[in-house]
Amino acid sequence: MSMIRRLLALDGVNVVCHFRDDGYLVEGYGLMSHNDMSRLAQFARDYRRIAQGNADQLAMFSGMRGWTPPHGWIIRGARQSVCGIANLVCIVDSFGAPLNEILMELREVSHW
Amino acid sequence: MTTLDDLMKLPGAMAAFEFRGGGELLEHRIAYPDRINQSILDLLAHMCAANLSIATMQARGWEKMTGMEGFYPIQEFTLIGFDWSVVVSGLLREQHKQAGKFSLPPLMGVVMANEKADYEAAFAILERKEPVQ
User: Fold this and answer.
1) Helical pair B119-126 and A99-110, crossing angle rounded to 10 deg
2) What's the ipTM?
3) Angle at alpha carbon of residue B38, lines to B120 and B5, rounded to 5°
4) pLDDT by residue (tens digit) across B2-38?
5) B70 vs A85: CB contact, 8 Å cut-off?
6) What span, in angstroms and rounded, lies between the C-alpha atoms of B74 and B52?
7) Nearest CA in chain A to B46
């Protein structure tokens, strides 16, 4: 079984994707077409770069250590949320999903 | 007891703050002034306001392109930095907008140390229902 596929076993996780540094989809699982998973991977890669750039600038302007390099980001929508950690991204239910546990798992799996 | 005070009770909370949609810092609380100050919070608030706007654009685009729903409106944005995380919410503001109010409340956020951060608890406080007046 793929290492990232086990994330789908967590409550509220609907889609999980692993992408390369250039945004190419390596593998993806869940309730989404392959085309949309490819788009999600590209979006996650772009957003990761935005978050990285923002953290870098915040650190540079403020002189505060501890922001960069960032581990990830969460965009929480009305019913669906998107979480990105390293080269992994997943779509989870905004309510009822054990977000702390999901983030811990994402972080652990991202090291494999 | 205000929401900012409740946010400061979260495990690892370093600061809690309110800011305008344009990012200008309003009221705030700081637990460790040697680590984070008003000037840093002001920069952070501007960064978070920008990210909420970017995320909103992406949510609208994503829903239109894929036909998936449930992303818009964006309620919260979280950046998980190397040691610190920031969680900001525009939910209360969104509720006022949807109620047709012209005067909108500020956005709110909290800075937490990653090793103790409880994101679910932060969201629970930031999403607490308050009557729209």
Assistant:
1) 140
2) 0.95
3) 40
4) 999 999 999 999 999 999 999 999 999 999 999 999 9
5) no
6) 7
7) A58
Nearest to B80 among A72, A75, A94 (CB): A72
pLDDT at res. B129: 73
And the tokens for A50? 């935005």
pTM score: 0.94
Per the CB < 8 A criterion, the answer to whether B43 and A55 are in contact is: no
Domains along the sequence of chain B with CATH: 3-126 (3.30.450.30)
For chain B, the average pLDDT equals: 94
C-alpha–C-alpha distance, residues B88 and B107, integer Å: 7
Q: For residue B75, count CB atoms less than 10 angstroms from its CB and return exposed for 0-12, middle for 13-18, buried for 19 or more.
A: buried
- Please write the tens of the pLDDT for every residue from B44-72: 999 999 999 999 999 999 999 999 999 99
Residue A30: strand pairing partners = A15
Residue of A57, A70, A85 lying closest to B81 (CB–CB): A70
Measure the CA–CA gap between B101 and B120, rounded to whole angstroms. 29
Q: Is A55 exposed, middle or buried (0-12, 13-18, 19+ CB in 10 A)?
A: buried
